[in-house]
Amino acid sequence: MTLYSRSVRRLLDSWPGKRRFGIYRFLPIFFVLGAALEFSMINWTVGETNFYRTFKRRQAKNYVEDQLQQQQQQQHQLQEPI
């Protein structure tokens, strides 16, 4: 267990910018990982769909449901006696 921790510590300590940037020297790694994740969500398709098609479909479904609910509320308000 100590060998693993020692090698991880050695890898982290060898990363450049420790004195100047401290813990923030790892931000470029996470920026690149986030960009790669976004790229994969846009461009990789499984069958006929990918993340954004599914997301857009869900947004459209929610919009239609909200519009129908608003119409039903308006009709209900018109039918109520004052």
Automatic annotation (TrEMBL):
A family per Pfam: UPF0640
Keywords: Membrane, Transmembrane, Transmembrane helix
Segments passing through the bilayer: 21-42
Keyword Transmembrane helix recorded: yes
Matching PANTHER family: SMALL INTEGRAL MEMBRANE PROTEIN 4, UBIQUINOL-CYTOCHROME-C REDUCTASE COMPLEX ASSEMBLY FACTOR 5
Protein name: Small integral membrane protein 4
Organism listed in the record: Drosophila navojoa (Fruit fly)
